[in-house]
Fold this sequence. Notes:
A: mainly alpha
Amino acid sequence: MDLLVHYLSLATKAIFIENILLAYFLGMCSFLAISKNVEASMGIGKAVIFVNGITVPLNWVIKTYLLDDGALSWTGIESLASVDLSFLTFICFIATIAALVQFVEMFIDKFSPSLYNSLGIFLPLITVNCSILGASVFMDERGYTLGESAVFGVSAGVGFYLAIVCMAAIRFKLRYSNIPDGLKGLGITMILTGLLSMAYLSFSGIQL
Amino acid sequence: MLRKLLDNVEQKILSNEKLKKFHPLHDALDTFLYSTNTKTEHAPYVRDAIDLKRTMILVVLALLPAFFFGTYNVGLQSPEVVDKDFLTCFLYGLKIVLPMYLIVFAVGGLFEAIFAVIRGHEINEGFLVTGFLIPLTMPPTVPLWMLAVATIFGVVIGKEIFGGTGYNIFNPALTARAFLFFAYPSYMSGNKPWIAPLDGLSQATPLLQKSSNLDITYSWWDMFYGYIPGSVGETSTLAILIGAFVLLITGIGSWRVMLSTCLGLIFTSTLLNQLTGVSDNPMLGLTALEHFVMGGFAFGMVFMATDPVSSAQTNKGRWFYGLLIGFMAIVIRCINPAYPEGMMLAILFANAFAPLFDYFVIQSHVKGRQLSYEE
């Protein structure tokens, strides 16, 4: 029961209070590019949830059993027990993410060609999406356990999903607006992101 | 005679290439003094600037009780007023509130006019409502230059960059309020700002007393009538309810939004009441009725949440929109120790999600129609 409450508060924190998009502004590139269309936003949101939910715990395993100082002691080989490979952290995280995104791409191509078409170039772009790497780095910095990192990965993705779908719906409504020429497109989206994160500030300060 | 003069001026403006740009200014004056040829027949949801004009004036009428009581209350709360009869208090309040209005209308109107001239759209009474709302949401001690900055932010960033009245996503008056709240928090929250003058007596609002675990020194009826410190227009739930009545019988304010906001409040506060034993957070024990009369809840529900532009556009969407406001307002009040009041942020948050509700309602409607067509 305590564990469940703990996981729930961790999830709420990652989705609302420390929203990866609107509190840390990570993953802005795909956020700005895809939020033109609600359907595609839902697609990339799901992709981010999926990729985050797998990469964050996977990176935890890699970090804990391969890269940390003395992490290799489980092999039983004495010369490996004192090796510290943590300088490879970022490279390994990126490699894991890249490999996994490739896998997701093939998977979606096979099972949902329409989604694959609507995501287009943006699915491979998740590879370099800061919010994916960011989630893994946060997991590392905050010293989460395996269970925590799985919860955190999924809920960081859910936070991304909510923010991007909300933004897409707003931009859908904005199609009828009479925006000054210089601000059309990215300009107004940047300003909206600011206003949106102001609305999300309502959560900042909640202690869980 | 005035009619002739206006027509003359109009012809001159329209015949001169250089002056043509300034036609919106003339048009605003003209339609303000005389009624236009087209009139609103029904609810204001037709997104047409001319149709909006007359309904916006009704909103201002609905705001008048809150305005008059608020002005009186500023004087009533102030320690500078010794003689507490109505006229003295009202005049003292007017000395504070009137400059606020002058600043808001001067600065806001100027920027509205600049945008109207450059972008060639009309000035309309949308700003009249925004301008009337802004001072009512401010503490009486707010410095006037701050008010000016907030008004500019609300008018330009909250509305004009989207194309003017009818196109905005967030309520401009709330955007202005939130801007000040985050930019100058010490002037907008805490014990100090609620009683004029600024350096005089400090007195906590009921919400602040409760959140800092003190006993509330005001009775429920005091809070209902509005004899409490707070922002200018928000204190008297009674005056606000009179305004709500006007909005409801004229069909300008959506009853769905008001009702569902109340439902959200009742549901959330009852839920949180169950937790009083678990946590020592004093806010959890407040009942729904107390939440309703404290702070800006009633004011936000009646005048901010029902804004036909920034709220959800579909009827089903309005239910979800209102529920979200009621829920968020209480959650922020009770669970977030950083802010004792949550109504402003709750409405902004729901404004952000309103297009999403609309999108889902429309999509489900489309799907339903598709299904029945296929059968």
